[in-house]
Amino acid sequence: MDFCYIWPILALSVILHWIYRVSEDYYILSFFSRRVRAKEGKSLDSIASVAPGCTIFGNCFDLYGKDNGEVFNYFRNLAKTMKRSYIQYNVGVPAYQIIDAENAEIMLNDQNLISKGLIYDFLHPALKTGILTSTGKKWHMRRKMLTPTFHFNILEQFQEIFKSESIKFVQPFIGQEESEISLSKLIPRFTLNSVCETAMGIKLDDMHGKGDRYRESFEMIEKSFIKRLSNPLYWNNCFYNLFVASKNEPFLKVVHDFSSEIIAKRRILLEDILAEKLKTQTADDDIYINKKTRFAMLDTLLLAEKDGLIDHSGICEEVDTLMFEGYDTTSNGIIFSLMNLALYPEMQDLCHAEIQNNIEDDLSNLDMIQLSKLRYMECFLKETLRLFPPVPIIVRRTTRETELANGLILPTNTQIGVQVFDIHRNPKYWPQPDEFQPERFYKENSKDRPTYAYLPFSAGQRNCIGQKYAFLEMKTLLVVVLKHFKILPIMDPESFGFHAGITLRTKNNIRVKLVKRN
Ligand code: HEM
User: Fold this and answer.
1) Residue nearest to atom 31 of ligand 1 (CA)
2) For the whole model, what pTM was predicted?
3) Which CATH superfamily is domain 5-516 in?
4) Ligand 1: residues within 6 Å at CB?
5) How confident is the model at residue 289 (pLDDT cuts 50, 70, 90)?
6) Nearest Cα residue to atom 27 of ligand 1
7) Is this prediction's ipTM beyond 0.85?
8) Residue spans per domain, the chain
9) Residue of 369, 383, 354, 378 lying closest to 483 (CA atoms)
């Protein structure tokens, strides 16, 4: 009897058995992505759904070939169809996407989940590993170093700068009956000026158009970020360095040269300030809260360098991080706030009336105490950040197998996305979620809402360090603009189209009309 056909059958059975056993733990077609499990006694389905992929390879190629708008909509569509937090299987890594407040709370409060997700690695060429992207001891040390720079006394000094920058912003339009302006073009210039002067202690006016080149270069870096995100081949550093990195280099050079120049300038200024201080110092003088010499956040880093706590490259990565975080996010918040003021004239009238009741026409006295009286405007800004969160997603990764309080067991390197945009529009917490209603944030209307249903500044130990700074800056500009102008819409909000970016983006520039107030 001829047994030769038995061997292939035997081999095939062994392979099939092996595949069966391996597939219990790995999603083989998604390049051996380890499976997410539920703890004993619970079923996976009772905690989260698994999102179907667009191909047989799990979700590996779901974003492939998609442009910025399609990448943005992909996540919005998934939230609508899945209706609860869901699991995806990407190239060799699982992802847990959170779209509800309860699971966001579990994740953001977990002391072990402080490492940022894979997509933050895509920011390393630009921001290296500064406070936003670093983890572990390095992050703890930098956070401790930078936190005092957002102290109330220092913010008070910054508010003076926001005020003078805001007055400078409206100056070109003051003599005109009406002006059409592109917020997307003008506001980032305003916020970059403000962050340079507050955080870096350097006036952009002295840098001859370099600010514009900095912003344009960051736009190009962002394009390459999305390109990398939507092609799993480029998730790997080797392929990215081989095919894409060189195209990015000229833009990275502009960004890094810009921050190096700022550091060099401030280094000289700080030496002068310290020398002057030595001459006039009294016992209880403090460099940070001296009224005559303005303090900049960069000074903290330069002084820490003297104490050997940070080196020059560390200062560079923090400056790049603070510049980027400090200008792009607030510019987003201001653009959408001004757009909403234009779209909702009755609410604009309420904001204006509140300003007239609380703030003198002579803006030279505008300070933090006056701004704190603008309660309606605060709700207006909060509602803007709900519908248009400048940071629409926050991602962490597990550094070891992690059991969450909801019973999910996440393998090492699972990406956990908190989909802020979707949580902010989840009808479970926000009735008529797409409607703009600042009253949602009145105290009496907020008390039954879970805290983690609103996360524009994230929460937990890695929350935004610049939250108060951002509110001060946004409020100051809005007050100055509304004192002088009525804001009118000139475009249909449906026409701007959301885009994925490092922060929330629109396809088309947002424009409004400023009309002189009588
Ligand atoms: C409307 C304006 C702003 C919004 C919506 C915002 C939002 C956020 C969010 C969501 C995070 C967490 C990101 C993550 O975990 O991936 C964050 C972190 C951070 N933000 Fe902001 N931000 C704003 C303004 C600012 C400003 C003005 C500064 C500084 C001048 C700043 C500095 C930072 C820093 C340094 C971190 C990293 C904190 C850490 O990881 O410890 N942000 N921000």
Assistant:
1) 466
2) 0.94
3) Cytochrome P450 (1.10.630.10)
4) 131-132, 143, 195, 199, 321-322, 325-326, 329-330, 333, 390-391, 394, 456-458, 462, 464-466, 469-470
5) very low
6) 326
7) yes
8) 5-516
9) 354
